[in-house]
Amino acid sequence: AGTRKPLWERRGPKGFGSLSFAPDGKSVAVAHGGPTALRLDPTTGKVLGEVGPHPAAVRACAHVPGTDLLATGSDGTIR
């Protein structure tokens, strides 16, 4: 952040509807327009894994404070 220079760039097919940094800073979750949320390395952008699936596109994701849980939302459901 100090240099204000991007470390990496990633484009989703429909953009990113939501993102959430893990409390420990070791991953960032993004809703990328598909049935899963992607977990990315915040320093490299490399995919660490996927969370889901939902029956429809994931529209939101948020880390649950005080836990290591990630909530994802789609089609009226939270998982």
Question: What does the model show?
Answer:
The chain is mainly beta and 79 residues long. The chain is built from no helices and seven strands. The chain has strands at residues 18-21, 28-31, 37-40, 47-51, 60-63, 70-74, 77-78. The strands form two sheets. A four-stranded antiparallel beta sheet has the order 1-2-3-4, with no helix packed on it. Strands 5-6-7 form a three-stranded antiparallel beta sheet, with no helix packed on it. Strand 5 and strand 6 form a beta hairpin. It is globular and about 40 Å long. The protein starts with 17 loop residues before the first strand and ends with a strand. The mean pLDDT is 90.
Which key phrases capture this entry?
single chain; 79 residues; mainly beta; three-stranded antiparallel sheet; 0% helix; globular
- Which regions are unreliable across 5 or more consecutive residues at pLDDT < 50? none
The backbone outline, from C-alpha atoms, is globular
Strand order of the biggest β-sheet: 1-2-3-4
The largest sheet, given as strand count, sense and whether it forms a barrel, is: 4 strands, antiparallel
Helix share bin = under 10%
* String of helices and strands: EEEEEEE
How many beta-strand runs?
Answer: 7
The number of helical runs is: 0
Strand content: 35-45%
Structural class: mainly beta
**Spatial separation of the terminal alpha carbons:** 32 Å
The gist of it:
With 79 residues, this protein is an all-beta fold. The chain is 0% helix and 35% strand. The protein is globular and about 40 Å long.
